[in-house]
């Protein structure tokens, strides 16, 4: 077949927009990884999207393997979700008062994730983890939080230590602006390392309010929990009176209808105490949530003393988008995500093996990532030990062939149920030819 290179490396309309953006927005972007710094070149400014396809400001079409970093599980501008959004918007955008739509979204989440008895809706994953940490501290009366290297939980001060993708992409150790006092209450441990966890609890168990973990890590590339890791988290937190917070912002409603928990099942010893959600549950709009045990959630204002609030929390348009999306996340949708991911991963394995490109593919449900190295990746040190420059060349080879990958090798690839056979064939062809190009 003909080489499907369709796009030149230069993108005049995006260049012009980036120049304009840079004068009014730091770096020209509103979230750092969008800037293409780790792969070089001009980020493509997008104009519209439909199903699995994106069109940039130069009118070029790309197959989308980012899916807005997870939310667009049904594909872009799904007609029924769009109708729900339009209907909600026609009734008003935001009231600052309770609405039926947010109740329905909360009910949908509680119905799907069995251990979640109550949820509070917020507007971003960052807000969800920030609030869950505050609640855990308020509930336990303790202040230390344990997190794992390479896990990202949003840009919360206490959690922005050794935080994976965005920070890894920029090679920053941590962020200036996070006070030592905030970071000092955070203990960072290697992921999947039970002895390190045991040692931390032996030393500071009575000070630990919570352990927060990505249900399956997706921000250092995809690194699922090793067998027994989640059980150890449950056992040690319970033994020491700390809460276990499972961050399902990325995995929630994507790995299965009930997220990673639905795939892995409730760990021996019991479910996590709190969960955080975002991405898919907002259907592309700003909606996120934290929730869990009713006795813990009861400590939140207005019933309890732990304060948490939001002008746009439970926004009716975002709730309508989230609800319409979740209601359409059927078995067939998850089956299609699996088929598409498996076809793409098989194409990578085939092409990279044929051309002698080192690679390792890891999975969490239909989420997968390609590490540009050999050998199992169990944590952040392994993940950092890969050929990021080679990834950059692969990224641009794919972009030229009209496929938009996440612009960092520390990210999961995301697909949607709208990725039809044409989309898969397009990606498979591009993968084969891009591998040949970079070999
Ligand atoms: N937690 C996890 C696991 C995430 O992947 C992310 C974002 O990528 C967040 C939290 C933060 O969510 P948001 O970007 O909506 O603030």
Strand order in the sheet with the most strands:
4-10-9-8-7-5-6
Structural class per helix/strand content? alpha/beta
Helix content: 25-40%
CATH superfamily of the largest domain: Type I PLP-dependent aspartate aminotransferase-like (Major domain)
| Corresponding CATH architecture of the largest domain | 3-Layer(aba) Sandwich
Largest sheet entry = 7 strands, mixed
| Number of DSSP strand runs | 13
Q: Outline, from the CA principal axes? A: globular
Q: In DSSP terms, counting alpha (H) and pi (I) runs of 4 or more, how many helices?
A: 15
Domain count: the total is: 2
Strand content bin: 5-15%
- Give the class-level CATH name of the largest domain: Alpha Beta
Radius of gyration: 21 Å
Global mean pLDDT: 95
CATH topology of the largest domain: Aspartate Aminotransferase, domain 2
Instruction: Give helix and strand order, one letter per element, not per position.
Output: HEEEHHEHEHHEHEHEHEEHHHEEHHEH
The rounded distance between the terminal residues' Cα atoms is 19 Å
Give start-end ranges of low-pLDDT stretches.
168-173
The kinds of small molecule bound in this structure are:
pyridoxal-5'-phosphate
Short précis:
This protein is an alpha/beta fold and 439 residues long. It contains 15 helices and 13 strands. The strands form three sheets. A seven-stranded mixed sheet has the order 4-10-9-8-7-5-6, sandwiched between helices. It has a four-stranded mixed sheet with strand order 1-2-3-13. A two-stranded antiparallel sheet has the order 11-12.
């Amino acid at each position: 077949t003909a080489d499907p290179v369709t796009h030149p490396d230069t993108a005049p309309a995006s260049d012009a927009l980036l120049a304009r953006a840079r004068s009014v927005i730091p770096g020209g972007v509103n979230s750092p990884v969008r800037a293409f710094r780790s792969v070089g070149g001009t980020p493509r400014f997008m104009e519209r999207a439909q199903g699995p396809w994106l069109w940039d400001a130069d009118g070029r079409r790309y197959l989308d393997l980012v899916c807005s970093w997870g939310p667009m599980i049904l594909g872009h501008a799904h007609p029924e979700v769009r109708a729900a959004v339009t209907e909600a918007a026609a009734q008003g955008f935001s009231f600052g008062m309770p609405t039926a739509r947010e109740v329905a979204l909360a009910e949908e989440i509680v119905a799907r994730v069995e251990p979640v008895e109550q949820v509070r809706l917020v507007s971003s994953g960052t807000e969800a983890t920030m609030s869950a940490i505050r609640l855990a501290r308020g509930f336990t009366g303790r202040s230390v939080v344990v997190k794992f290297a390479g896990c990202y939980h949003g840009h919360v001060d206490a959690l922005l230590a050794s935080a994976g993708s965005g920070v890894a992409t920029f090679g920053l150790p941590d962020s200036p602006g996070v006070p030592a006092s905030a970071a000092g209450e955070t203990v960072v441990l290697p992921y999947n390392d039970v002895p390190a966890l045991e040692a931390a609890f032996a030393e500071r168990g009575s000070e630990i309010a919570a352990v927060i973990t990505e249900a399956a890590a997706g921000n250092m590339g995809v690194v699922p929990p090793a067998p027994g890791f989640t059980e150890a988290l449950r056992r040690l937190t319970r033994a020491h009176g700390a809460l276990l917070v499972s961050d399902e912002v990325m995995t929630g409603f994507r790995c299965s209808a009930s997220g990673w928990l639905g795939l892995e099942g409730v760990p021996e010893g019991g479910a996590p105490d709190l969960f955080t959600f975002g991405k898919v549950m907002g259907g592309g709009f700003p909606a996120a949530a934290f929730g869990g045990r009713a006795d813990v959630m009861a400590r939140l204002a207005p019933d309890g003393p732990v304060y948490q609030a939001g002008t746009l929390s439970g926004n009716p348009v975002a709730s309508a988008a989230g609800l319409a999306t979740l209601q359409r996340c059927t078995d067939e949708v998850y089956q299609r995500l699996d088929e598409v991911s498996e076809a793409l991963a098989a194409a990578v394995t085939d092409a990279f093996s044929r051309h002698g490109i080192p690679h390792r593919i890891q999975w969490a449900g239909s989420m997968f990532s390609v590490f540009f190295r050999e050998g199992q990746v169990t944590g952040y040190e392994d993940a950092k030990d890969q050929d990021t420059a080679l990834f950059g060349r692969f990224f641009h080879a794919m972009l030229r062939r009209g496929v938009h990958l996440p612009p960092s090798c520390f990210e999961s690839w995301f697909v949607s149920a709208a990725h039809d056979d044409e989309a898969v064939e397009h990606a498979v062809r591009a993968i084969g030819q891009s591998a040949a190009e970079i070999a």
